[in-house]
Every structure is written in C-alpha cells, then in structure tokens.
Automatic annotation (TrEMBL):
<protein>
    <submittedName>
        <fullName>Transposase</fullName>
    </submittedName>
</protein>
<feature type="domain" description="Tc1-like transposase DDE">
    <location>
        <begin position="17"/>
        <end position="76"/>
    </location>
</feature>
<dbReference type="InterPro" id="IPR038717">
    <property type="entry name" value="Tc1-like_DDE_dom"/>
</dbReference>
<dbReference type="InterPro" id="IPR036397">
    <property type="entry name" value="RNaseH_sf"/>
</dbReference>
<dbReference type="GO" id="GO:0003676">
    <property type="term" value="F:nucleic acid binding"/>
</dbReference>
<dbReference type="Pfam" id="PF13358">
    <property type="entry name" value="DDE_3"/>
</dbReference>
Length: 107
C-alpha cells in the first residue's frame, strides 16, 4: 500500500494535495503505512461498502460478467476477470455513472 501511495504522490501536481478515500482494511489503516506529505487519507466508515465507489464497480462487474458461472480452472478465472475488466474499460462514462453520488455533488 505504501508503494501505491508513493505512485499516487508522484502523479500529484507540484503544490497540490491529494485526498485518497480508503475503506478500513487493515493494510489501509496500519501505523506502518508510509503516507507521503502531499496525500491525506480519508477513512470511510467501517462496514459501509455502499459509500465506496470501487465496491459499486466490483458489484457491477459481478452482476454483468462474473456471477453465475462455473470456472473450470485458475486460468479460466483469470481470463474471465481480464475480459470483464476490458469490457469495463471500454465504458468510461458508465464507470463514472456507477461511482457518482447525487448527494455528494455541489449545487
């Protein structure tokens, strides 16, 4: 997670500051996490996946491409997940719609 935050930090414009939403998974909230100075962590409430847009993306992928199937092997699982991910990437506006919250937008 520290390496991931370092990569995010490098993408933040000089003089800017990033806010990163995280659920309260142990590896997100550990004291061992090295958070760069240009990033603030905003912890989502525990046990509230509906507040995490990433959880909604996973739910969409499961409902549309990954559920109700019998996988025949590990490679078959990876192939289906890669296919689902590529289908998702072909729909950037749909991704934005899934993660949008009317109550979170300004006037």
């Amino acid at each position: 997670m520290s390496l991931h935050l370092t990569e995010i930090s490098l993408a933040v414009a000089p003089g800017a500051h990033a806010a990163v939403l995280m659920d309260q998974a142990g590896w997100h909230m550990t004291d061992k996490l090295d958070v760069p100075a240009n990033i603030s962590i905003i912890a989502l409430p525990a046990k509230c996946p509906e507040l995490n847009p990433v959880e909604n993306i996973w739910q969409f992928m499961r409902e549309n491409w990954l559920s109700n199937r019998v996988f025949t092997s590990y490679d078959n699982i990876v192939d289906h997940c890669c296919d689902a991910w590529n289908k998702l990437l072909d729909q950037p506006w749909h991704i934005m719609t899934i993660g949008r919250r009317k109550w979170a937008r300004g006037s």
